[in-house]
Amino acid sequence: MKKKIIGILIISMLCMCTVGCTQKEISDGTYSVEVTLEGGSGRSSIEDATIEISDGEIFATIVWSSPFYEYMIVDDTKYSPIQTEGNSTFKIPIVLDKKINVSASTVAMSQPYLIDYTLFFYSKTLKGE
């Protein structure tokens, strides 16, 4: 019986530490972050990603490896590029450590195509700027 109680206590303590250790507070600011991209033909990638946190809201600025994306759709909202020169750059709302389904319209081919992607932003890779 003692071994069972000790085992339960150890498991409880490990669970409490795991929850406390993985949920870190992230203060308002701008951070670089690693992001993975799934979907599409595999020819495009995300060149750069930064996030801005303000009052609990998180927005990512992502730079595609192509200048041919004319808009993105995230949660049924359409986002236009935030710059007109260089590779396509967008500022979109995100959630850290969760797969985010997005669509992006590219004009790199003979006609525009709306392509589905999944983005994942890793909180443990955040670096303050």
Brief descriptors of the model:
single chain, 129 residues, alpha+beta, 8-stranded antiparallel sheet, 1 helix, globular
Explain what you see.
The chain has one helix at 2-22, and strands at residues 29-39, 46-54, 57-64, 69-74, 77-79, 89-93, 100-106, 113-128. The protein has 129 residues and is α+β, with helices and mostly antiparallel strands. An eight-stranded antiparallel sheet has the order 5-4-7-8-1-2-3-6, with no helix packed on it. The chain is globular, with a radius of gyration of 19 Å. 13% of the residues are buried.
Q: Tell me the number of helical segments per DSSP (H or I, 4 or more residues long).
A: 1
Give helix and strand order, one letter per element, not per position: HEEEEEEEE
The count of DSSP E runs of length 2 or more, i.e. the number of strands, is 8
Instruction: Describe the largest sheet.
Output: 8 strands, antiparallel
Proportion in β-strands: over 45%
pLDDT < 50 runs, ≥5 residues: 14-23
- How much is the average pLDDT? 86
| Gyration radius over CA | 19 Å
Distance between the termini: 53 Å
What proportion of the residues is helical, as a percent range? Answer: 10-25%
Largest sheet strand order = 5-4-7-8-1-2-3-6
Shape: globular
Secondary-structure class: alpha+beta
